[in-house]
């Protein structure tokens, strides 16, 4: 399907979290040169009464979001739609027609991680297209490197995109999404593969691994390089850092997310729901998380 028939779609519920997600979605739509679709699903909250003696109509949450985003992103093509279909089926249907579906997640004030509501988890676990989960309070400058030279925050370089890659299932759809996300940002891409046979107790970080483990690590490095080689040719302007790390994926990807603008992880459609590592990353990552379904 061509880009002209696709959108970046965001779920709107009237909350601060939803507006933060909508602003992230608007920036992503601008980066990808796609329309932005706002979708409010389920029953509409009560509309505030108009202010007396002021000739302005009362606005719904969807109306307010559309107006705010139109002011902030005047060149963006914005489509607002409401449906009374319950949230999960409505969002799943919208995801099937979107380039990416964006949802907000209610956060812990003062903590880096965030709680994800049941609707967001249900949609991320079943959507046919990528779903990005955005924390409450996510700002445009959070995607970019700190600027110490007087560069305006909106013009600073983007932080890296981090891709967690399982070499047993190196799906093209997952890798393509990560490379495209890095390319539209002119950001580096950090590809992280972990393997769970841990070094012996007392092994010093950076020290040579024993024979079998060292061979396995070297084999993983070669496989990762071979897997990414055609993508490097397809995206020659993207700087790619390959990392093969012994340990559990959740731990290392959480650490990588602290210094990332976007974390990209996969979800196998042949397995039901989200795995333990994916759920942990969705709840606690330090940046927005893109969950990409693949075979």
TrEMBL record:
Signal peptide: none annotated. InterPro entries: Rossmann-like_a/b/a_fold, Universal_stress_UspA, UspA. Residues 199-220 are annotated as: Disordered. It holds the Pfam family Usp. Gene3D superfamilies: HUPs. Residues 6-135, 158-293 form the UspA domain. PANTHER family: ADENINE NUCLEOTIDE ALPHA HYDROLASES-LIKE SUPERFAMILY PROTEIN. Belongs to the universal stress protein A family. This is Stress-inducible protein. It comes from Streptomyces avermitilis. The lineage of its organism: Bacteria, Bacillati, Actinomycetota, Actinomycetes, Kitasatosporales.
């Amino acid at each position: 399907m061509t880009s002209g028939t696709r959108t970046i779609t965001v779920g709107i519920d009237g909350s601060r979290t939803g507006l933060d997600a909508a602003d992230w979605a608007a920036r992503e739509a601008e980066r990808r040169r796609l329309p932005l679709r706002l979708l409010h699903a389920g029953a509409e909250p009560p509309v505030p009464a108009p202010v007396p003696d002021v000739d302005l109509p009362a606005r719904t949450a969807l109306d307010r979001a559309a107006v705010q985003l139109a002011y902030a992103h005047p060149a963006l093509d914005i489509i607002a739609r409401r449906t009374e279909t319950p949230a999960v089926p409505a969002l799943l249907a919208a995801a099937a027609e979107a380039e990416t579906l964006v949802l907000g997640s209610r956060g812990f004030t003062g903590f880096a991680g965030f709680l994800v509501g049941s609707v967001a988890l249900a949609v991320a676990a079943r959507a046919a297209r990528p779903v990005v989960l955005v924390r409450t309070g996510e700002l445009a400058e959070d995607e970019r490197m700190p600027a110490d030279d007087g560069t305006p925050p909106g013009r600073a370089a983007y932080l890296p995109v981090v891709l967690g890659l399982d070499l047993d299932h190196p799906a093209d759809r997952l890798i393509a999404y990560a490379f495209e996300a890095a390319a539209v940002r002119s950001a580096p891409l950090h590809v992280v593969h972990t393997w769970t046979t841990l070094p012996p107790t007392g092994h010093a970080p950076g020290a040579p691994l024993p024979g079998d483990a060292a061979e396995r690590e070297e084999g993983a490095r070669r496989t990762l390089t071979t897997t990414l080689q055609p993508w490097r040719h397809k995206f020659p302007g993207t700087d790619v850092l390959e990392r093969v790390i012994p340990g559990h994926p959740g731990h290392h990807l959480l650490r990588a997310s602290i210094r990332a603008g976007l974390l990209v992880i996969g979800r196998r459609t042949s397995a039901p729901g989200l795995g333990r590592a994916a759920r942990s990353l969705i709840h606690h990552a330090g940046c927005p998380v893109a969950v990409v379904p693949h075979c």
